[in-house]
Amino acid sequence: MDLAGAARALGAARRVAVLTGAGISAESGVPTFRDAQTGLWARYRPEDLATPQAFAREPQLVWEWYTWRRELVARAQPNAGHRALVELAACVQHMTLISQNVDHLHELAGSRDVLKLHGSLFANIREDDRLPVADSDRTDDVPPRCRVTGQRVRPGVVWFGESLPADVLHAALEAAREADVFLSIGTSSAVEPAASLPFMASQRGATVIEINPDTTPLTGRCEYSLRGPAAEVLPVLVRHAFASVE
Ligand code: NAD
User: Fold this and answer.
1) Which residues form the catalytic set?
2) Half-sphere exposure of 151 (CA within 13 A, CB side)
3) Structural domain boundaries, residue 205
4) pLDDT digits 0-9 by tens, 199-212
5) Within a domain: residue 125?
């Protein structure tokens, strides 16, 4: 693991793009999709619940799964990895934080303007037109209905097979194209289009650094693969990159 080389590249970068996945929240107690689910949910695969087809077929089951995930995330606190990214943003001239996570732990840590590619667990939208619904405008049914239109209310996340919010994706692509350094943290690099962002950055000349305890399709194709948990590796990387500013 070439921490020194990665730190040198990061310390010299003017524009940094960061992509995070479920792994950065793992040490906050939020399970990744790969971790086994517990209790009632152990018999379901997340890929089978996080789809529009699942919600159409079994709306109550899907809504309750999201209620379980919301409660789990609501109890979680940001960890040293989330906090290191707040510090990084303060050290570099320009940083864009792109996240596939639907939790709010980056925001709780203090990161601003997070590009949330997959939406938020804490937002609710109408099933048909995907417009936001305020809590005061929804019924107590499971799942709730919008009092104004009667449409079913669903979580404000992007499900498998759905398109990403165009403005958010556009900003993420631009950040990847312009980055001097691209950091990919805690993501399996398996879900498109997020998985393509580091490759796109690399083609434009960015140095790509991956932080993950496991190998991914990106591992063999990036300059630096720092193998370990984000909450341990990220603070050390940021400290080494900006040692002279402390
Ligand atoms: P993923 O579950 O496919 O992969 C998680 C990755 O994190 C794996 O490569 C794993 O090796 C790595 N990892 C595990 N522990 C880690 C740690 N301590 N530090 C660093 N890396 C660690 O998740 P993904 O790549 O984000 O993509 C799948 C989808 O999962 C996304 O659409 C996302 O919306 C959704 N998801 C989000 C959350 C969340 O918001 N916290 C949780 C579960 C799933």
Assistant:
1) 118
2) 14
3) 3-30+77-118+163-245
4) 999 999 999 999 99
5) no
Q: Is the CB of 35 under 6 A from ligand 1?
A: no
Cα angle 202, 203, 204; round to 5: 90
Q: Nearest C-alpha to atom 31 of ligand 1 is from which residue?
A: 100
C-beta of 212 in contact with ligand 1 (< 6 A): yes
Among 32, 35, 85, 169, residue to substitute to test ligand 1 (most atoms within 8 Å of Cβ): 32
Residue closest via CA to ligand 1's atom 43 equals: 32
Task: Please report, as a single letter, which amino acid is at residue 2.
Answer: D
- Model confidence over 13-72: pLDDT tens digits? 999 999 999 999 999 999 898 777 777 778 888 888 999 999 999 999 999 999 999 999
Specify whether 175 is located in the same domain as 70.
no
Q: What share of the chain is helix, strand, coil (3-state, %, to 5)?
A: 45, 20, 40
Taking residue 143's Cβ as centre, other Cβ atoms within 10 Å add up to 21
CATH of the domain at 16: 3.40.50.1220
